[in-house]
Amino acid sequence: MEVFRYQTVTRFEDTEKYKEDWQNLLKEIPSFYPTMSCEWLSAWYKANKENIEDIFVLYFFDLSGKMIAIVPLYSYRVKIFSIKLKVLSLMGARDQIMTDIICPFEHKLSIINETIKILKSEYKKWDMFSFRRMDNAAIGNIYLERIVRKNNYPFNVESRLKIPFVAIEGSWEDYYGGLKGRFKKEIRRKTKKLSELGTLHYSMIPAPLKPEIFQEFLALEDKGWKGRKGSSILKRDQLFKLYSSLTTVKKECFRMVNFNLYLDKRLISSSLCFQSQDRFYVFKITYDEEFGKYSPGLLLRLYELEYCFKNNLTKYDFSGTAQKWMKFFTNRNHFSMDIIIYQRHLSSLVRYLGYTKIKGFLLRFPLLTRLFKSHLME
User: Fold this and answer.
1) Domain count across the chain
2) Mean model confidence pLDDT for the chain
3) How far is CA 172 from the centre of its chain?
4) Exposed end of the chain (fewer CB within 10 Å): N or C?
């Protein structure tokens, strides 16, 4: 059994004194998610602090004083019927963006086990604890379910998501050559049609991004269906604050990258991506709907993938749930999940029973399901 000590921080401002240790710890986790970096979490906290009740960050150290793990937690409230429940969760997770405990592989199981013990014995001010957007394939997360079973904690697994990725292996020419002939033929046809309308050219711009570059992306996205639907970055205040902060971050192991496709001087497709030490994540992509029949978004995807191959990265992550068109690029997927652990309180157990017993039954009846969802928050 590993021996270590831990410290807790309950004010986000106090995390600054551990920033250098945090950066050094990430260097031992080459395939960390952007959501695990101190820059992401700082921007995320500033964007979401109005909805955060309190934070509880655990720092673990070995006996020599070296930091070996960080577990950044925060709490917020949800309603079940008319009862407010306090939820404790990992900071930084958003939409389909996966996250994890910040810890090298060799310490993962011990840290997960110790974290749960601390939350059950010392920090009890929560009704539900959510390990949100965890990678199903990570060894520590596979054993997480066994740990909670062994300790007899009420829990359930929710929000299983399939997230496509491309393993960057071999050369770009080999990868592109292996794509389906029909798809490549369509790409050539659409590229030719676009080229008849003007000169096509691509650009790659690493952070820090100039405000006008970021605004150009925002305007193009808001002009399309996301703007009409109210889901564009400009229409979502917290997301706008998060991305605005991240445009200025430039670190050796973490940065935003903006990719663009222009027709003459007109922007017709653009994306906001993140590059960590060895991985690439596409978070937002948009295109000019006037040119939708030419698939400028798919053309930009290919340019991003070529960049990954030529820069010796190991993985290109779509960072979104699987869609049919993504199969043109890959058949590989991550699987993510949320594991929810409950206190043995009446209110939290009502939610636990609702999701483990009642929901499965109600899903067979659409009308009852809608009523159920209107009262029981996801």
Assistant:
1) 2
2) 85
3) 26
4) N
Residue 353 placed within a domain: yes
For residues 100 and 92, what is the distance between their CA atoms, to the nearest angstrom?
A: 9
pLDDT band at 378 (very low <50, low <70, confident <90, very high): very low
> Directed axis angle between helix 139-150 and helix 108-121, to 10°?
40
Residue-range definition of the domain harbouring residue 150: 5-161+336-375
pTM of the full predicted structure? 0.85
Please count the CA atoms within 13 angstroms of the CA of 166 that sit on its side-chain side: 28
Written as one letter, the residue type at 138 is A
d(CA 75, CA 78): 10
Q: What is the pLDDT of residue 216?
A: 97
**Domain containing residue 265: CATH number:** 3.40.630.30
336: enclosing H helix or E strand: strand 333-342
Nearest to 288 by CA among 319, 256, 265: 265
179: helix, strand or coil:
coil
CB 198 within 8 A of CB 263: yes
What does each C-alpha distance from 181 to 186, 262, 301, 309, 327 come to in angstroms? 9, 26, 17, 20, 14
Q: Do 146 and 192 belong to one domain?
A: no
User: CB atoms < 10 A from the CB of 37, how many?
Assistant: 24
Same domain, residue pair 127 and 174: no
Is residue 362 in some structural domain?
Answer: yes
Each residue's pLDDT tens digit, 8-64: 999 999 998 999 999 899 988 877 888 888 889 999 999 988 889 999 999 999 989
- Are 180 and 292 within one domain? yes
